[in-house]
Design brief:
Length: about 290
């Protein structure tokens, strides 16, 4: 067996983040071939991932990035098993690297395409493998979404201070000047914060699945089954209006002033900026 120089072991350790003995063993097995040794260590990471496949990855971070011109934004969750690992250098480095891959991936919602995205000849799946190899914990992409403006408007993003809740909101405005105004930018971000805090089910009632609506109607009817038959329908209708008002973003009371709906706040802000605006879509990710 060839003698492995200490400098080569140190180099592999810096590249992989693994312990000195693991690096030396990998180099010995590869007869001093650095690339083969790195592959061996990455395979170790894959083995670790397979072994921990049944573990719950309920910790981690939300990553959200925007393009320099603000026309594109992407968000994902990188999940691991424990909060301890989420704070390690290896995990944080993977989070930082993930930002570049998010915008490079052109598929809107495909985690598989994100994993296969390459930067500088390296796939993001390789970054995950290396992270697993260093931490010994299951690490995976939980959710992924990507927005791209097709006309005038803006994309507001918000990540909560704990890094575990993130929101993207796409606005369509009558002119770009409306979207670029300071008051609109401010409210745009505030609405993203509202979504993070309140967690609406959908933009409006049309976005709520039919089975959910029927379930809520059934619950409402059960609650008032002992009422006179001639008023049950009206009571159920009233309960459904309240359900929609509480769970649809546009009709919710704005978190900073619950007497005013989110839709009115948006409309009034756009009008003050000289135009109109509407929310095209939003997405909210949460870890844990």
């Amino acid at each position: 067996m060839a003698e492995i120089e200490a400098a080569l072991v140190v180099k592999l350790r810096k590249m992989s983040g693994q312990g000195m003995m693991d690096c030396k063993k990998a180099l010995e097995e590869s007869n001093g071939n650095l690339e083969e040794a790195m592959t061996s260590l990455r395979k170790k990471g894959l083995a670790t991932l397979a072994k921990r496949a049944d573990k719950q990855a309920s910790e981690g971070k939300v990553i959200c990035v925007s393009s320099p011109d603000g026309k594109e934004a992407a968000m994902a969750t990188l999940c691991c098993e424990t909060d301890f690992v989420a704070k390690t250098d290896a995990f944080v480095a993977t989070v930082d690297a993930m930002g570049d891959y998010l915008l490079a991936c052109k598929a809107a919602d495909s985690v598989e395409n994100l994993l296969g995205t390459e930067k500088d000849g390296k796939k993001f799946s390789d970054c995950l493998t290396e992270c697993v190899s260093k931490t010994g914990e299951k690490t995976e992409v939980g959710n992924f979404a990507r927005f791209k403006l097709e006309g005038t408007g803006s994309i507001a993003t918000y990540v909560h201070f704990n890094g575990k809740i993130g929101v993207m909101v796409e606005y369509e405005t009558s002119t770009q000047a409306v979207a670029d105004s300071e008051q609109f930018k401010f409210i745009g971000r505030d609405i993203a914060m509202h979504i993070a805090a309140v967690n609406p089910i959908s933009l409006d009632s049309s976005g709520i699945a039919a089975d959910v609506v029927e379930r809520e109607k059934a619950i409402a009817a059960e609650q008032v089954k002992d009422k006179p038959a001639n008023i049950i329908g009206k009571i159920v209708e009233g309960k459904m209006k309240k359900f929609f008002a509480e769970n649809c973003l546009l009709s919710q009371g704005f978190v900073k002033d619950e007497k005013v709906s989110v839709e009115k706040v948006l409309t009034d802000t756009a009008k003050a900026a000289g135009g109109t605006a509407k929310i095209k879509r939003f997405v909210r990710f949460a870890i844990g």
